[in-house]
């Protein structure tokens, strides 16, 4: 396949979020950082006073976020600016346009938050988020995020391996899958009332147990050094970097370990388009578009930033072994 | 509107129909197209092509039901604007989504049903645009109207093109689908009325036998 547009990213877009960089360098104890600040160009994002660029969340979470270990796993690609990460995403509970989640999530209240741990575990129950995070060491993970719609970003998450949470609740030998559920609350999620939606709320996603226990799979509570903005899935979301973005379910209220494969939202609506696995795979097209390339955001019309999509989103070395013997064309 | 001279109305309609294009240009150069400008431009140009096509199809009903005869002279310009946005829509898709890879255009045309139906819709608009001049009207005579009736096929295909891209919200598809349905049903009713009249004139005996 020919990629006529250079995949080289122009200098105007390399500039990462300068404030974030400065803060991160400070965390590492590096003095005199911020050479990139001068490069911060008007092209990165329109001028704005950003309500999201402030500290959020309760004190206990802020303390834990501040103590997060930086850069445990780093994607080499330049970061997508904070403004784009928080103002261009899918979160259908807040609306169907990419700008809707940022625009309609101001009234959402993620604290306090309870998560129910259920199913094949030794210690089921409903737990405060604060208790779930107690003693959990937070790490920063810079991951590529590849949306099934053929656009992608590079995002510095803060979270912890899902495995370390699941182990605490003592999965039984019958636990083969993990099912996650997003909050269902039409008062806070206006689109859950929509008559035009084909989605049967609440949103449900799932992983195979070995995928859930993989060290790359994390539960995120923050991004860019701060607590998750509401539109990005506050207060707790999944991030599975080698799968299409829709697997990384937001605002989780329930985690259930099951013996059988859970019925997940998109694979129920359109099973020919969205499989249970949803591993990033440039060789298997979505029926309505090619998955061979992606638009790395932010892009401009003059340099569309079209880059080839990598097998397992570039994490093949770490995860390909999970699927040895599995026909990825059939189990897409 | 009626009291304005035709030329003033022309300028006004031209300016109004150019506004979406003006906005896209402004947004492109001031970086207000969002993180994924390719998607925004393709979506907006497609939406405006469909909207202007529907507005064009409102002209006849407006003339007959509201006695807005003055609108007729502007139908051609409205139709050409629909064509203009449809062409921009295709160009934006080829250059910004496919990265100007023309070999991929052929592939996508065959593989994706929603693109397969979008292409003939655009083709019809091109043909109608080319044959929209007075000279062509004279040359084609009676077959001009028959040719231009294919605009109904174009609008149906355009709607299908939108409908087949729905992922979970049917809002736009439902909105433009119901407008299309109303505009086509009006024509169907007119056609049925005409047929009744013709019957009554040509074969009056038929009615009695009922």
From TrEMBL, chain A:
For whether the record's keyword set contains Lipoprotein, the answer is no
Q: What class of enzyme is it?
A: oxidoreductase
Cofactor dependency: Mo-molybdopterin
Q: Which SUPFAM superfamilies match?
A: Oxidoreductase molybdopterin-binding domain (SSF56524)
Per the entry, the cofactor note is: Binds 1 Mo-molybdopterin (Mo-MPT) cofactor per subunit.
Q: Where does Mo-molybdopterin bind?
A: 89, 92-93, 147, 182, 232, 237, 248-250
Q: What does this protein do?
A: Part of the MsrPQ system that repairs oxidized periplasmic proteins containing methionine sulfoxide residues (Met-O), using respiratory chain electrons. Thus protects these proteins from oxidative-stress damage caused by reactive species of oxygen and chlorine generated by the host defense mechanisms. MsrPQ is essential for the maintenance of envelope integrity under bleach stress, rescuing a wide series of structurally unrelated periplasmic proteins from methionine oxidation.
Question: Which HAMAP family does its entry note?
Answer: MsrP
- Listed name of the protein: Protein-methionine-sulfoxide reductase catalytic subunit MsrP
Give the species.
Answer: Pokkaliibacter plantistimulans
List the taxonomic lineage.
Bacteria, Pseudomonadati, Pseudomonadota, Gammaproteobacteria, Oceanospirillales
This chain is encoded by the gene named msrP
